[in-house]
Design brief:
The complex is a heterotrimer of chains A (283), B (99) and C (646).
Chain A lengths: L1 H5 L5 H23 L3 H21 L3 H26 L14 H22 L16 H9 L4 H22 L10 H11 L36 H6 L6 H19 L5 H15 L1
Helix pairs in contact in A: 2-3, 3-4
Chain B lengths: L3 H20 L3 H26 L3 H31 L13
Helix pairs in contact in B: 1-2, 2-3
Chain C lengths: L3 H19 L7 H24 L8 E11 L2 E9 L1 H24 L6 H20 L3 H19 L6 H32 L4 H6 L6 H19 L6 H5 L5 H10 L4 H8 L1 H5 L2 H24 L3 H21 L5 H28 L17 H15 L5 H15 L2 H30 L36 H22 L3 H10 L10 H24 L12 H7 L4 H46 L7 H24 L1
Antiparallel strand pairs in C: 1-2
Helix pairs in contact in C: 1-2, 1-4, 2-3, 2-4, 3-4, 3-10, 3-15, 3-19, 4-5, 5-6, 6-8, 8-11, 8-13, 10-15, 11-14, 13-14, 13-18, 13-22, 14-15, 14-17, 14-18, 15-16, 15-17, 15-19, 15-20, 16-18, 16-19, 17-18, 17-19, 18-21
Classes of the chains: A mainly alpha (283), B mainly alpha (99), C mainly alpha (646).
């Protein structure tokens, strides 16, 4: 691999690798910005980053390639996923643009910027690649270490300070100091009475005995689903299922099957009630 | 293949990341796009390191990673506390700059 | 000895400070303190005078440098005094007459509850006037000049509860301001031309300056003199200034302050000598004012205003004489001093008459008063004889010399000026005889006042007489003694001064003197003067002495009516200056509203409109700002690439 990296022009193998993985990296990047759900974005980004790690290796930056996988894909992206889980899903996930003209401006700026970069690169004389053969002769990690602990030692030390500061900062930002006594259950109930809302516990979700039914809204006496019965997160995600209509149909199908199983004709008193109700509805 | 293609790829990724920052409203995704831009820069640095035949570019890329890690830690903490107070992770909801 | 000079100024200044800041505790003794300090100043002046007499002519001038006021590089303003023969003359006049009038005021202002303040103002005036004549540079002179203006303003408006007095004070102040502007410009011109404004260097260096510059300085000084000395065209304030208490009219508006213009021109003689055009302007102003004041004095029925017209006219004589150059300076100052005596005496006499007549000022309501106030009659009569130039009395000596000098100017100018001064002498005799006859001779025309409200008894001194029939009586001793002393001055001063040309010799080191040679002999001039004055007296006697004087003024000729209105001076000022000013300001306001405000408001509106559009960019969304930033970066890179490409 060091031979590859040292070469002025990359080998055919590297070329194939570049074009295949490069395409995937671009697709991953596009996925990051275009996919609706944050989790999908994060996964796309992770893919791109892994491919970038491979490119680092291909460019002779072995240490960086490994660190990229460990730090970025392993730590940072996991942190992202944790936060996505913590924050949950909100209306922010909608891709609908709310600021007038923002999307067009963004695309125009992006295109212009990209064209500028590419044309700038094209006009620069970047033909001679010396390769890292000499630099990596004593080993890539050893070479980096020599630089970090000599030339860049101050920067390195300061980075340590930066990391400590960031850790403390994150703790300060997320830690919530309790500045008043926790309210007792009695006080909480009194507060609920005073505010006059949801005096009883929230209503249970509807029951539908086919699977876990927390995503099914319970029905009010008039047959409409109650929003209160399902979790807020599910509501935000739009994952609440309305089964009021389906339940009736399922019930009907069940009864029919039962009758067939039992070999009985439709029992008048039993069948007439729903039918009668239907007729009443029709009328 | 000329290794300069890595630079073109980096430019493309950077531009995509920038567009994402501008288009997306979810703060977490915006953050991811920023990371994408940083990674594009790192790729450039690594490619330049190869071009010049020394390791300084890689050192800078290494520092970028460290700084990015610190940044992610603080940034995500900010997002979390923002979400706590506003029950939203949308960058548009934090629009106190306009009264 | 020169250390005493500052004391001259300091004594009355101390009095002013104590009296004005002292509060009511001093009400009982304040007037005595003020009079005492004025007298102290006079005593110091007298000591300095005798000291000066004891020295040789060349060493008489004294200098005292007190301290540097504004020492900045070449700009040196010093508080420094110069006491030469000219200043000495003024010091004695100011402190002498001033002290007498202080004494007079003790009686005159007896019933005024603000007497302490009055004496404070009088002391302030004395101090400022002494500063004016003792200064050794123009800037300090300007300081005193403004000081006397302030004191004059305060004293004219002393009875500020009378709207007429308040207005008169304001008018005097404003008109004086025009003149003061002239003085300040003159000082600036001096500084740019000579690099200094001390008397010595400036007057010694007149040969180095161009004649145009000297003419400009001279004209500005003349403007200043016109303002302070009530000369045409800035004379309108003097008549109204008679609203002040009579001692003020006597001291400030007859004897001392109004003569400051003459002092200024005489002091700056070297400048005027080198600028004939400016000198001509001075002469013209003097001649015009001489006739102007005399005509106004003929028509006024108000005794004080008639005397004010006379003052204007007499100062016109002085200015004219000062404009004649070295042949006239000494006579201008001599007339100034004798005029100081007899005009102060006349005003005090008028005050005494008013004191006895319930503050009535209309001479048509006097008449036959000689029996009731004999002392006043005699002193006033002597002042009268002096002012008309009755041979042997003060006015004769000084006025005759001025007429001679006017003829001595030479050429057509000399004849015209001589004729004007002669005519002025005739008119003076006429109007003063008129005043004399209407006041002290003839039938008594005063009546019991019909009711209390109609009596114009604004002077608090009249309060205990109001509503009663006027009962003319002689004034108290404190008033008559100063009048008697001034009458002595009126009678003997001129003769004393002229004895062996004493006064001219005294002043010669300061003003220089050239003996004028009139085209006709001095005797002929004197004879014609006497003839003219007798004619004037005769006409007045024929008009007022042989016939009863009507109590209500007849309508009179066009000239009389114009003269009663100060020869339409106020109307002229109103039409030209006030109306013109109004038009100017109105058009300026219009300009301001349309043009200036248009530009300003237009700018504001366009900025507002632009901002209104720009603020839409500030929508508060960070993403939006990020787009701007990103676009800006793109533009920057594009610019960089373009520059490198070029």
């Amino acid at each position: 691999m060091s031979a590859l990296a040292a070469a002025n022009a990359a080998s055919t193998g590297e070329a194939v690798q570049f074009w295949v993985l490069g395409t995937i990296a671009v697709i991953g990047a596009l996925g990051t910005i275009l996919l609706k759900k944050a989790v999908h974005s994060a996964l796309s980004l992770a893919a791109t980053m892994i491919i970038l790690a491979v490119f680092y290796l291909a460019n002779g930056a072995y240490f960086l390639g490994v660190v990229q996988i460990i730090v970025y894909t392993g730590a940072i992206m996991m942190l992202f996923l944790f936060v996505v889980m913590l924050v949950g899903v909100t209306a922010a996930d909608s891709l609908k643009e709310t600021i007038k003209g923002q999307r067009w401006l963004a695309v125009a700026c992006g295109l212009g910027f990209g064209i500028l970069l590419v044309s700038g690169l094209g006009r620069a004389s970047l033909d001679t690649f010396e390769g890292l053969g000499t630099a990596n002769a004593g080993g890539n990690v050893e070479g980096l270490a020599a630089l970090i602990f000599t030339t860049y030692v101050f920067a390195f030390e300061i980075t340590g300070a930066l990391l400590i500061t960031a850790t403390v900062g994150a703790m300060v930002l997320t830690h919530r100091e309790r500045i008043e006594r926790a309210r007792t259950q009695r006080e909480l109930s009194e507060q609920r009475v005073r505010e006059g809302k949801h005096l009883p516990p929230l209503p249970a979700p509807g029951v539908y005995a086919r699977h876990n039914a927390v995503d099914i809204a319970g029905l009010l006496p008039d047959g409409t689903p109650s929003e209160l019965t399902v979790s807020q997160t599910l509501r935000a995600r739009g994952q609440v299922r309305d089964v009021s209509r389906q339940a009736l149909e399922d019930l009907k199908a069940l009864e029919q099957r039962a009758e067939e199983r039992l070999g009985r004709g439709p029992s008048e008193p039993q069948a007439s009630r729903p039918q009668g109700r239907k007729e009443e509805n029709a009328q | 293949m000329n290794p300069v293609n890595y630079l073109y790829l980096a430019a493309l990724l950077f531009t995509i990341g920038a567009a994402g920052v501008l288009i997306r409203r979810n703060a977490i995704v915006v953050f991811m796009c920023v990371e994408l831009m940083l990674n594009a820069c790192n790729l450039t640095l690594v490619a330049f390191s190869r071009m010049h035949g020394n390791l300084d570019g890689q050192i800078v890329a290494f520092f970028t990673m460290v700084v990015a890690a610190a940044e992610v830690v603080v940034g995500l903490a900010i997002i979390v506390s923002l979400f706590r107070s506003r029950h939203s992770a949308s960058v548009d909801d934090a629009s106190l700059m306009k009264l | 000895m020169e250390n005493l000079i500052a004391l001259l100024v300091a004594a009355p200044l101390l009095g002013a400070a104590v009296l004005l800041c002292g509060g009511k505790r001093l009400d009982r003794a304040g007037h005595w303190l003020g009079t005492l300090l004025a007298a102290a100043s006079f005593v110091i002046g007298a000591v300095l005078f005798f000291d000066m007499l004891g020295r040789d002519t060349g060493e008489r001038a004294l200098h005292q440098h007190l301290f540097s006021w504004v020492p900045v590089e070449s700009f040196r303003a010093d508080i420094a005094f110069q006491l030469d023969q000219l200043s000495m003359t003024f010091v004695l006049l100011i402190t002498g007459v001033g002290t007498l009038i202080h004494v007079y005021s003790i009686g005159y202002m007896e019933h005024d509850e603000r007497r302490r303040r009055f004496f404070g103002y009088l002391n302030l005036f004395l101090s400022a006037m002494l500063l004016l004549v003792l200064a050794d540079n123009y800037l300090l002179l300007y300081f005193g000049w403004e000081g006397v203006g302030l004191a004059s303003y305060l004293l004219i408006g002393f009875w500020q509860h009378k709207p007429s007095a308040a207005t008169a004070a304001k008018k005097a102040f404003l008109v004086n301001r025009v003149g003061d502007m002239g003085l300040s410009i003159a000082i600036m011109l001096m500084f740019t031309t000579f690099g200094t404004f001390a008397f010595g260097p400036v007057l010694a260096a007149t040969g180095q300056a161009s004649e145009g510059m000297l003419t400009a300085i001279g004209l500005m000084l003349l403007l200043a003199a016109c303002g302070k000395s009530a000369q045409v065209p800035l004379q309108s304030w003097l008549g109204d200034a008679m609203e002040g208490p009579t001692p003020v009219s006597a001291l400030i508006h007859a004897a001392t302050m109004v003569t400051a213009g003459v002092y200024l021109i005489t002091r700056s003689g070297a400048i005027f000598n080198a600028a004939p055009d400016a000198q001509l302007a001075v002469v013209v102003v003097g001649a015009v004012t001489l006739l102007f004041g005399a005509v106004v004095g003929c028509a006024k029925d108000d005794i004080k205003k008639a005397l004010a017209g006379s003052t204007m006219s007499q100062i016109g004589y002085m200015i004219l004489a000062a404009g004649l150059g070295p042949i006239g300076y000494a006579f201008a100052i001599m007339h100034l001093v004798t005029h100081g005596f007899f005009k102060a005496g006349l005003f005090l006499g008028a005050g005494s008459v008013m004191h006895g007549m319930n503050d009535e000022v209309d001479m048509r309501k006097y008449g036959g008063l000689r029996k009731y106030m004999p002392v006043t009659f005699v002193t006033f009569g002597l002042g009268y004889l002096a002012i008309i130039g009755f041979p042997g009395l003060s006015g004769f000596w000084s006025k005759d010399k001025i007429i001679e000098a006017a003829f001595a100017k030479g050429g057509t100018e000399g004849w015209i000026l001589g004729a004007v001064t002669l005519l002025g002498a005739g008119i003076t005799a006429y109007y003063m005889t008129r005043v004399m006859i209407m006041t002290f001779f003839g039938e008594k025309r005063w009546q019991p006042a019909p009711d209390a409200g109609a009596v114009p008894s604004a002077e608090p001194a009249a309060e205990d007489h109001a509503g009663r029939m006027p009962h003319p009586h002689e004034s108290p001793k404190s008033m008559t003694i100063p009048m008697i002393l001034l009458a002595f001055g009126s009678v003997f001063a001129g003769g004393l001064f002229s004895f062996n040309s004493a006064f001219v010799n005294w002043l010669e080191p300061v003003t220089a003197f050239e003996h004028g040679h009139p085209p006709i002999s001095a005797g002929a001039v004197t004879a014609s003067t006497v003839v003219v004055l007798l004619t004037g007296v005769g006409i007045a006697y024929a008009q007022y002495g042989r016939r009863p004087v009507p109590v209500v003024a007849p309508r009179g000729s066009l000239l009389t009516r114009a003269a009663r209105r100060d020869l339409l001076q106020d109307d002229f000022n109103h039409v030209v200056l006030v109306r013109g000013g109004e038009h100017l300001t109105r058009s300026l306001v219009y300009m301001d509203h349309t043009l200036v405000d248009g530009v300003v408001n237009g700018t504001a509106a366009s900025v507002g409109g632009l901002s209104g559009r720009l603020r839409k960019l500030q929508n508060g969304f960070a993403r939006s700002y990020a787009v701007s930033m990103f676009g800006g970066t793109a533009v920057l890179i594009a610019a960089t690439l373009l520059m490198r490409g070029v």
